Amino acid sequence: MALDYRHLSRDEMIRLLASRERVLRESSEIYTKAFRVSPDAISITDMETGRFIEINDSFERFFGYKHNEVIGRTSNELGFWSTPQDRDRLIELVKLRGSVRDFKTSGHTRAGGLKIGLVSAEMVEIAGRPALVLLVRDITNREKAAQALRESEEKFSKAFRTSPDVMSIADFETGRYIEVNDAHEKIFGFKREEVIGRSPTELGIFENPAVREKIWKSLEANGSVRDVEIEARTRDGKRLTLLHNAELIELGGRKCVLRVSHDITERQEAILREQQARREYTLQLIASQEAERARIATELHDSIGQNLLHFRNRLQSVLNKKNLPVKLRKQFEDMNDLAMQTIEEVRRISHDMHPYQLDHLGLTRALASLIESTKQASAVAFEQRIENVDDLFSKDAATNLYRIVQESLNNILKHSRAKKVRITLERDIHEVHLKIADNGRGFAPAKSHKTTKGLGLRNIAEHAQVLNGQFQLNSKPGKGTTLEITIPVSNGRKSAKNARK
């Protein structure tokens, strides 16, 4: 609606015009300042010729050209548009609509770099000629970041899909699968569509819920889990051993778990086969040693022992003669004493090489006899508490346990300088516990019994391994030594019965 100024006086009209000029001047100053300080690149070009009429400071920074290098020239002359067709399309849209918003394009800077921008354009009139106002918002960094993210996601997607390891993404709260890779399908035998939305427990992949709870608690506390060995099962029931890794991630504001599992089933089976082969070799070696010891013990007893006994009897018959000179009698008596000592030594060696007590007394009484004879042959005070275990071990197992005690006592007498030794052998429903403790000088044990220099400890460890026992050795210099072996005997009675049959 037009205003009617006819009722105004001349002075009022002059004041009104002055006020409007001031407003226009102030408005012009505001727009000029906004034009200059805008963070976006702004330019004004002649619509017909495309030549620049004005640019702001941000335009100079955006493209790298000074004001005097741009004014009067066209964008094509300066090579701004990386795709010249974009400018033609933009002009067409402006002519059609009068304005354009957020037209995405790219342009070259003076230094040859590439800038990406969102262009807004509007047609205006300047001095009676149509002109084009362009505002360019720099989105180069944003686009590069978005491109890098897309590339990263593409790389992750390819790595996820093609990885030979089992990979999956699951919801942290429910444990249900969100995504699985091809290796997951191949190894477990479940198709992707059968897995998504269900948990490994529901599928029977992880049979033990306690394992899942342990992993989840560790994830919650630390954000990741590294190299946890877990047992799993395939669709057809095959058991697998996996080296499991997991990490908390966020997808769309949702807490998720990225899991990567390496199948080590074949490696573990190879290790078990190697362990079994070593155990069988150890069993054969110990059996061979025991057989050789028995043979040597028999020869000592039946051959050398009998010859020595025959020799002593011959000496005794000479000593029975009444007319034997005194000096010669003394020599024969010394020889008789030496023969007797030698016979006793041969018997001791023979008994040590093959524990005949086991055959005649049983394991429990044989151990008690061994400890008592060791006590009689030394100045060490021995305490013993031996429970009856004769019905728990087969003949071979009993021999191995006897050798452990025998070797331990020999080590104590040779090396410990102990004054007191306590030996206990206790049994319960599932295991037998042997403990031998001395108050000797002690030592610093090796990290592994396999690397220790002492043959005694290695022999003890081998016998314990044959018995499937857990061997623990505690010792410190000046603090004595304690040896403990725990032997499972859940099948001991059966083994003992089979041995007797």
Total number of strands: 15
Largest β sheet strand count, sense and barrel closure: 5 strands, antiparallel
Strand order of the largest sheet: 2-1-5-4-3
What fraction of residues sit in β-strands? 15-25%
Uncertain ranges: 491-501
Distance between the ends: 123 Å
Number of helices: 17
Helical proportion, percent range: 40-55%
Rg (CA only): 49 Å
List keywords for this structure.
disordered C terminus; five-stranded antiparallel beta sheet; alpha+beta; rod-shaped; 17 helices; 15 strands; 501 residues
Give a written overview of the molecule:
A hairpin with a 5-residue loop joins strand 3 and strand 4 (114-126). The protein has 501 residues and is of the alpha+beta class. 21% of the residues are buried. The strands form three sheets. A five-stranded antiparallel sheet has the order 2-1-5-4-3, with helices on both faces. A five-stranded antiparallel sheet has the order 7-6-10-9-8, with helices on both faces. Strands 11-12-13-15-14 form a five-stranded mixed sheet, covered by helices on one side. Helix 11 packs antiparallel against helix 12. The chain is 51% helix and 24% strand. The model is unreliable at 491-501 (pLDDT under 50). The longest helix has 55 residues, at 265-319. The chain contains 17 helices and 15 strands.
